[in-house]
Amino acid sequence: MTENSGNIKESLEEFVKQALQSYAEAQGVTLPKMTILIERPKVKEFGDFASNAAMQTVKIFKKNPMEIAEGIKERIPPSPLIGEISIAKPGFINFRLNPAASGIALKTILAQGADFGRVNVGNGKKVLIEFMSANPTGPLHIGHARNAILGDSIARILNAAGYAVTREYYYNDAGVQMKNLGLSLQARYLQALGEDVPFPEDGYQGDYMKEIAQMLVAEKGDSLKSTQETQTFTQFAADHIIKLIDADMRALGIYFDNWFSEASLHKNGKVDRALDRLAQQGMLYEKDGAAWLRSEQFGDEKDRVVIKSDGEKTYIMPDIAYHQDKFERGYDILINVLGGDHHGYVPRLKAGVQALGFDAARLHCIVFQMVTLLKDGEQIKLSTRAGKFITLKNAIDELGADVVRFFFLMRGADSQMTFDWQLAKDHSMNNPVFYVQYAHARCCSLFKKAEEMGITWLGVEQGDPALLALEEEQTVIKTLERYPEMVRLAAETMEPHHITVYLCELAGAFHTLFTSGTKDETKRFLRPDEPALTQARMTLVAALRQVLANGLNLIGISPMEKM
I need a labelling partner for 420 at 20 to 30 A (CA). Which of 12, 108, 441, 532 fits? Predict the structure, then answer.
């Protein structure tokens, strides 16, 4: 990493690493493999960056950390990035940046363009992320959006971090719920034909079942009137609902590479093959006429039944077979995005993976908390079975895909969240997504205003960053430079909310700069009588526009050019 890389933090890490190696050689010490960290001090007086490398190596050098810090400091090469290096107890190495660092950061942002912020954490590792995976028993409601948007955003971030990512939707088209779906459609179909038949007690009551029944009547007439088996009805309903789900996902900018059917695991013998593997591994035993998995030895709270005494396989067995299939497809990392009601399911799933002989550390389960919808001052419960919910399509149509995506990414997956419908409908800067999009639109409008004034931006080489001396300007620049760190953090933690929090912070820094010092906002940036300052500030705005666009695109949200 060089000082021209644009990521000042990584450049300083490399400087310290080289200086530490030089100091170790002078001391006749061999350094072990270690990570050198550069952090941003919470207290501004300590500088722009700090390293605790001296404290990390006390046991290696067997010296006072202040002495080690001085030895490292002496070997850090001169750089236009660094204005001052100081040592603070108990051994921190503190860095203050030169104004030239601003120029290097802005130049790199504009040179890299849409690629600025991309980092190579993944080194091409293959990742399969399975998310959404709602059973095809009804239209998606707004609560489903958290899973979908979280999963898709993680996939986007991991792509930007150097992973090869595949998105997969696993749908349950077998089992009791699907049988109830078939019974529900059969009843609505017969009712549509004028038959007086009762509706199943556990059926799906939403009006969408009546609509699907009308479609079935239009396609088949009364030819299924005497049909006793329900599979035909189940398949018809599931196929239609999956098309609706796919349409909702596409409206949010979400596209799956694979749609994986649970029923296919039974049809092609993969469930039986997984059972055979478990038996070969010695992971099954019989008790009370049932087959049990030795899951307790892998951290589950107890052993689990995989085949009941009547020969029926339990619900966990297809999931174990599904994960065997995932590993056999050659993925290095598996990610499952699961609702909060699956929290207790994670240990038994990981136990199943280990029982198959795979490394459970390669399976990451992200469990998100459920959503409360606040609309017109009241909380709305979301229930597909009862048929009472606000559909995801309705939310997208009324609020817009950008708003829905941003709102579901504002908090960490493990945090409870309330979706405030009224705030989401607000088109002012009180709405967080518009607050960020308006910052991008302001950047675009400044360049349009410059054109109207006959001012041409001459490019990054023509602006002197030393002229960007205002505290508000430096705050914007330092925030811009952090963007690759935020992408890395979001990728390493698989937490997309780091990006939305960062974008709000960056937009806030710019809005403060934009509105401070003068009532005429454009005079802050466009000064025909000061062309050098104007060029420098236009460079800053160009870099800001680029990073805002990169961050918004990263999480699937449109950068607006005017609002």
Answer: 441
